[in-house]
Model the fold of this input.
Amino acid sequence: MASASSSKYLDPSKALEHLASYDRKDGLSVQELLDSQTHGGLTYNDFLLLPGKIDFPASDVVTETRVTRNVTLKTPFLSSPMDTVTEKEMAIHMALLGGIGVIHHNQTAEEQAEMVRAVKRHENGFINNPVVLSPSHHVSDVLEVKESLGFCGIPITDTGALGGKLLGIITSRDVQFQDRNALISDAMTTDVVTAPAGTTLLEANNVLRQSKKGKLPIVDAEGRLVALLSRSDLLKTVNYPFASKVPESKQLYAAAAIGTRPADKDRLKLLVEAGLDIVVLDSSQGNSTYQIQMITWIKQTYPKLEVIAGNVVTRAQAAELIAAGADALRVGMGSGSICITQEVMAVGRPQATAVYAVAEFSNKFGVPVIADGGISNIGHIVKALSLGAGSVMMGGLLAGTTEAPGEYFWHDGKRVKTYRGMGSLEAMEQGKTAPTGSKGKPAAGASKNALTPAAARPSAIVENAATSRYFSESSAVKVAQGVSGDVTDKGSIVHFLPYLHVGVQHSLQDIGVRSVTELRERVLTGDVRFEMRTASAQVEGGVHGLNSYTKRLFSST
Done:
């Protein structure tokens, strides 16, 4: 009987051979999955990746990826240029943690340039353009530098500029108990450890370690200041091994957004002078003559500046911008959590389909794709990468962190921060002043003039980052393409971004690939497989069947 029973089954040792006899693999290839004639447009929640074989630890997974033609990062994370997501603090910490923060432009050009300058000065190899003061400056000047830039170890030269003869250095300890009006000459330290011009970065680092000083001025044979090195930068190199740095200068990468109007050329000039590395042309619909002309002008005027163009969701849009010279493309239209473009304008594309279609086309030209919008968890990040994106841009996922702009407040018992779409009326009206009467008071009926003929009411053109992004500067009636709300406190991205990074590593381990590059290669060859999810499958894949539960995303202990 035992012999008869065993004859019903195949030899277990032949399982792998039998597997090879099947006509097709489990699941779908990416081409089969994203065939919109068969499945329509898909979002990230509409499919899953099938698991592969694990024969390596998650810590071995390499997340390095190209975000533009010439910029490679250790992690595939960018923060969105929104006024409730990315300003100086977010940009600095995103870069320190291996990503890039794109500073929004819903502010004056001078304010935005100062934020770019702060990013470039935050961590350096040799600081080739340090802040320098003269002996005739006052303690108050030092305190102002500390307040605006976050440091106050400042070299003092006879001219108050780089290239002057080094006389001393002034630190926070030197000014701690000094009167604000006291001269720097009376407070500065004159016994300064220096290194000669020509010293290598490694040699300079060794001098800093041995001297136990905070700053190391680099001087030429005549004692003139030519550069500066900071001890805090050495510590950051240890604490932030993934930091996104320009290879030549060792400064953090700085990225910022601009519009496509004539005034944005003047804005860009200030940003480049501040040290900008990457410019993002911020438009909800990137395939416009305005953006094409802007790309052409930038490439002629600032040929070394990386240009991220967009937004696009079709191959036709992408082709126009690639031909104009774009170094990367943002993909997404109406997929963000605070965006209502698809609902209001009836224009856009489901994000997974959009990312695959554009990436499949643009990657042939060496132009990376940034999946922008619809990213609400680690799974969405990995799905975007599997569809060909080089990186993801996050707004709502990073809003509510300590480094995001704005103050915390309490709403329904939860600690929250404001988060709004750049297409919201609140963002569009940033900087708007009410129409005024002859004495500077609100004009009669100012709040009720929406239906008044344009010729009969005061000019109310509002031009800012939000209106230019949606081509609404001159529209008498502003049509919202976004909403304003709030998001819960997520803590600091110093903890949150590493959580995302480790999560991506574990996900790629489950898929059986050791890097983002290998993921994309094996998706294209059909080795990495996908499966569609029905509505029931999506319910099954989430938390269900519990009376109550606590959802903790990560622990940093």
Summary: Confidence is low (pLDDT under 50) at residues 433-462. The radius of gyration is 27 Å.
